[in-house]
Isocitrate dehydrogenase [NADP]
Amino acid sequence: MYDDFETTGDGPLESEVTIDAANAILKYNVGIKCATITPDEARVKEFNLKQMWRSPNGTIRNILGGTVFREPILCLNIPRLVPGWTQPIIIGRHAFGDQYRATDAVFDKPGRLEMVYTPADGSAEQRYVVFTFKDKKNSGVGLTMYNTDESIQDFAHSCFQYSLMKGWPLYLSTKNTILKKYDGRFKDIFQETYDSKYKVEFEKRKIWYEHRLIDDQVAQMLKSSGGFVWACKNYDGDVQSDIVAQGFGSLGLMTSVLVCPDGKTIESEAAHGTVTRHYRMHQKGQPTSTNPIASIFAWTRGLMHRAKLDNNADLTKFCKALETACVDCVEAGEMTKDLAICIHGMSGTNESHYLNTMDFLEAIALRLKRSLK
């Protein structure tokens, strides 16, 4: 099934198509998403949009739930800022709640900041004094954020399922020594879920689950050789996924897979956006050297999951061959400009070091055909 929407014209509303696409993913268990724009005022005017549509990613994730996992694509000749990382590090980000759905405010006069919970059953409200601003000099800011047991449980299931799928250990990081109840809830739910649902299978596979403090986990990550899944709370995942991507060399060599709590439904996409600067060059008829590897891997990872569900060995073989062809091209010196810059530096890169977009795709296709003979 293929869903498409154009930014112009009188077809169905973008939101309707996005919702239809998300529901189709739930029905068929596999979705592959191309990069999309989240329009600002300039894009609304440029494409004559009916309104400033919300993020398609946000719409789809709200319907599917689940967890976004980012994994680097390793090429031996792409330098790593952390040389010891010889295996991928996969970040699983809990993309719900916390700071991203918080209510914050500025206070400019003396007063008391309280947090109040009013039960829906009419029972007594629960009131917590957060801080007392005593005078004008003591003005400041406040924040209230939340999460739900259901969302944390879904996060846990997605992480355990993905860890089993990769055959790698899982680490959850929190700061439960400070946020004893808030982060403690994450720690407790993960442990309960592991003990009741996944411990036997993990031990059978000779992998493990462990909770660590976020500062300890960051230090361990830098010292490690990789080869694990890291479950991060929302903000931690936002930060650490970019750190890991850069540490391995390039955001253009990063996969992104949304895994639903059932472990059966996924949505695969490239970790990067629409590469607007290259599109502007294309509009002017200028050649580009745009890295397609993350987009190719979005298709291979989605199709490999389809092959797993359908027990389709030929499709699995094709996907693995295509991924190998991409990596082999880069390691043989056939690459796009962004990767050449990783090797030679911005000032040291010239046109002899890289291919344009179409020539690079042709090089991948040639290697793929050879491997499938």
Notes: The chain is about 45% helix and 20% strand. The chain has a mean pLDDT of 89.
